[in-house]
Design goal:
It is built from four helices and six strands. With 107 residues, it is of the alpha/beta class.
Amino acid sequence: MSFQFVVAAREEAARAGTFSTPHGNVATPAFMAVVTLATVKALDPMELEAMGAQMILANAYHLHLRPGDALVRELGGLHAFMGWSTKTASSFAVTSTAPSGGSRRSR
């Protein structure tokens, strides 16, 4: 799996380029919606695509907690689960959820 970022233009501190992923390219700068529990509140995947969203950022930790890895996998993975047909990125906040030595908040 390889990723690459190529700068195509610069203007002072701004830059434009292409972020290449194994699943395709994303022109930058880019709007990347953050999805919580596999949904962008108040927008469906077709609306996101119509707005020009090329990629979304899913919170893997939230999906792990609910509905759970097994269910997402059983339903065909994240793309099928949420009805998103293009690129995704995910994050997993390990340090913020550490049971000891981390900054875990009481529930």
